[in-house]
Amino acid sequence: MATVDLNDVRKVYAGGVEAVKGVSIAIPDKQLCVLVGPSGCGKSTLLRMIAGLETISSGTVAIDGKIVNAVGPTERDIAMVFQNYALYPHMTVYDNMAYGLRNRGTPKAEVDSRVRSTAKVLELSGLLDRRPRELSGGQRQRVAMGRAIVRNPKVFLFDEPLSNLDAKLRGQMRVEIKSLQRRLGVTSVYVTHDQLEAMTLADMLVVMNAGLVEQIGAPLDIYEKPASTFVASFIGAPPMNLLSLSTESSANELEGKLLGLAPPGGQAAMLGFRPEDAELVADAEDRSGALMLSATVEAVEPVGAETFLHCSAAGNRIVIRVGGRTAAKPGDKLRITATAEKLHWFDRGGRRLDSTSPSS
Ligand code: ADP
Questions:
Q1: Which of 52, 90, 240, 338 would bridge 73 by S-S if both were Cys, CB 3.0 to 4.6 A apart?
Q2: 234 in a domain, yes or no?
Q3: What residue owns the CA closest to ligand 1's atom 13?
Q4: Residue 306: CB partners within 8 Å, gap ≥ 6?
């Protein structure tokens, strides 16, 4: 049981790099909070400050309401699962899981009961006598988690724990981590650069960019209402289509098409829509209250259940998602429409123009 509260946390490294520039996040008890953002945005630095592995330049980190800035990592009651989960190769699964408890002088009977109950939760009971090399990648990952869980910590911290696994295993482990975290109800902070992993795991998603928080919210709320063009481009694959309204050629070409459409206030510089929110239309007639675009197909990318049409439209590159099989081929001219409620408007600074934006 624990909350984790970051209040205006900053980190300036010795060399002068300001890796985290004032981040505030309030993580409620039992929630899985995912920090996502491109490489170098400060996610790991933030996680390491929560862990106590990195000093905090200013601001506070509190666990369960208690400021821990000056508390050492071993006294913070947290457990960290790293990307490189480095199990001891010469030890059995049992001993790997028992190691930390024994080191703390936990009585033998308690070590045994905790290791066995954790093994049960993780479905590792039949593997306790094996050594890491006799396990699959997924089983090893579970042992690494077991080693963290067995200590019964207040908070779990995950630093890209799945990035060394192949795509299929990563998908399976994602589901396992999520269900395990639910069952155990341990507040967790999870760092990844993979937006799909972030979307599927998070109760609370924090999108970071260049040392700052861009947006905090539930994954689908962020997907549906990205607070900035950065978030719109980072969350979702393929990313949101963004049409520039500020370059002359694009604006001219779009001008006639935007009749009856207006941003919810302010000067719009970008207009966005998701690949799945565009519709192909057969007729040449413009629909009022909807964006109409003429596009030329440049590439067709079938992925099975769906196909992505890469097109040029009004001087921009856009992607349209259609069904699995399509007759479209490069060179085809298409008419595309997106209704007003599917459009996203952004100002010159890339911020969402929307009075009810859930941005942080
Ligand atoms: P992320 O986890 O999002 O990839 P990091 O937190 O690792 O980002 O890094 C954020 C920034 O801080 C980067 O510019 C990185 O080069 C810099 N950085 C990370 N660790 C150190 C360090 N020990 N000393 C100096 N700069 C660092």
A1: 52
A2: no
A3: 40
A4: 321, 322, 323, 324
pLDDT at residue 211 is higher than 90: yes
The reply to whether 263 and 149 lie within a common domain is no
**pLDDT tens-digit series, residues 17-39:** 999 999 999 999 999 999 999 99
pTM for the full predicted model: 0.90
> How many angstroms is it from 42 CA to the middle of ligand 1?
6
Same domain, 105 and 212: yes
40 Cβ inside 6 Å of ligand 1 = yes
Query: Which residue minimizes the CA distance to atom 27 of ligand 1?
Result: 13
Distance from the alpha carbon of residue 58 to the mean position of ligand 1, in angstroms: 17
Asked, as a colleague might, if the bond just before 238 is cis with ω within 30 of 0, I would say yes
CATH number, position 294: 2.40.50.140
Left (φ > 0), alpha (ψ -120 to 50) or beta: where does 86 sit?
A: left
Residue 357 pLDDT more than 50?
Answer: no
Closest C-alpha to 158, from 44, 261, 303: 44
Is the Cβ atom of 48 under 6 angstroms away from ligand 1? no
Q: In this model, does residue 332 exceed pLDDT 60?
A: yes
pLDDT tens sequence across 76-86 = 999 887 766 67
Between 137-149 and 93-103, two packed helices, what is the crossing angle to 10 degrees? 20
